Amino acid sequence: MNYTSLAGELQSLVKGTVLVKEPMKKHTTWRIGGNADLFINPADKEDVRQAVEFARNNQIPLTVIGNGSNLLVKDGGIRGMVLKVGRGLAGISLEGTTLKAGAGALLPELAAAARQAGVGGFEFAAGIPGSLGGAVLMNAGAINGCVADVLVSVVALDEENRFIILPKDELNFSYRSSILQGKPIVCLETIWQGFPKKSETIKEETQQYLSKRKAAQPQGYPTAGSVFKNPDGDYAGRLIEACACKGLRVGDAEVSQKHANWIVNLGQATAQDVLTLIEKIKRQVQERFGTTLHLEVRVLGED
Ligand SMILES: Cc1cc2nc3c(=O)[nH]c(=O)nc-3n(C[C@H](O)[C@H](O)[C@H](O)COP(=O)(O)OP(=O)(O)OC[C@H]3O[C@@H](n4cnc5c(N)ncnc54)[C@H](O)[C@@H]3O)c2cc1C
């Protein structure tokens, strides 16, 4: 496919930016990933609709991303179009204790809007750097709550390019999982329900929670947060640490000294470095504890 001419065609249809051979390392918090053939940063919902239709009409494979904070993009990059739901769809509005927000808004922005309005239930969101679309896909959460606790519904575009409303009950949420994972669907808008709570109390609790997170998590290096899901009744970090994997390194990818379930990019780590390290960790945990670790991060693209 001639992506340069396709990019020109798509650019004439949308207000947002269309790019060719865009390095995905610019769009992942791990700062890792090869090029996307075609990349669009939509300016609004209508741009998303145009891009999805364009991809379908031209048989271009479509990958949707949010803030790239749970992604490992392989070194060969992503074939076809990457659609980033970001700042063009990031508005947040409030009515009583109900919040409505674009899927490109970030969890800490949602938490801040709720805090300022005296709406509780969103304290967990303050420290997680994902977009709301990505958060719904992942049922993102922490010790003090998760998406499934406060989400009401999602407005999405389905593969036929129709706007659909998905109530929470249809999303089959479980630990870091929703029915939307792997589905050709674009989350556009989210509705949330909190409860009245004093802003001052929310502020204090959030500060305490954020400083606990800061103390437990590596700072200063690109990461994607927890690499593996916690196995039932245990912690991936505990198992990995017990296998003496802290500090284990492949290329510039290193198991964090501070939190064994995090892999940090010391500078020039490749996706292959991270994947090799992941395999080493899995093997050691399997051999020592008989436990199979499953990835929380989502792997996209080609070798
Ligand atoms: C420092 C750090 C701390 C973290 N702490 C936590 C934590 O405490 N708890 C936790 O749960 N996670 C945590 N994470 C992981 C991550 O922030 C969450 O998984 C987050 O919800 C991912 O959102 P995102 O927008 O970055 O999604 P992405 O990483 O961009 O994508 C994740 C998945 O969602 C899909 N997707 C994204 N947006 C859309 C959309 N609009 N429509 C359809 N599909 C979409 C993608 O295709 C992909 O499959 C952390 C990450 C980092 C870097």
Shape category: globular
Largest sheet: 5 strands, antiparallel
User: Would you tell me the structural class of the helices and strands?
Assistant: alpha+beta
What portion of the residues fall into strands of 2 or more residues?
25-35%
Number of domains: 3
* Whole-angstrom Rg: 20 Å
Major sheet strand order: 6-7-13-11-12
**Low-confidence sequence ranges:** none
Layout of helices and strands, plus pairs?
Blueprint: H1 3-11, E1 17-23, E2 35-41, H2 45-57, E3 62-65, E4 71-73, E5 78-84, E6 92-95, E7 98-102, H3 107-117, E8 119-120, H4 132-138, E9 141-142, E10 145-146, H5 147-150, E11 151-157, E12 163-167, E13 186-193, E14 195-196, H6 199-216, H7 236-242, E15 249-250, E16 253-255, E17 263-265, H8 271-289, E18 298-300
Parallel strand pairs: 2-5, 3-5, 4-18
Antiparallel strand pairs: 1-2, 6-7, 7-13, 8-14, 9-10, 11-12, 11-13, 15-16, 16-17
Helix pairs in contact: 3-6
Bound molecules: flavin-adenine dinucleotide.
Structure report:
The protein has 303 residues and is an alpha+beta fold. It is globular and about 55 Å long. The protein is 29% helix and 25% strand. Helix 3 (107-117) runs antiparallel to helix 6. The chain folds into three domains: 3-84, Uridine Diphospho-n-acetylenolpyruvylglucosamine Reductase, domain 2, CATH 3.30.43; 89-215, Uridine Diphospho-n-acetylenolpyruvylglucosamine Reductase, domain 3 (2-Layer Sandwich); 236-300, UDP-N-acetylenolpyruvoylglucosamine reductase, C-terminal domain (Uridine Diphospho-n-acetylenolpyruvylglucosamine Reductase, domain 1, Alpha-Beta Complex). Flavin-adenine dinucleotide binds at residues 29, 64-71, 85, 103, 128-131, 133-135, 137-138, 140-142, 185-187, 223-225, 298. Its cofactor is FAD. This is UDP-N-acetylenolpyruvoylglucosamine reductase.
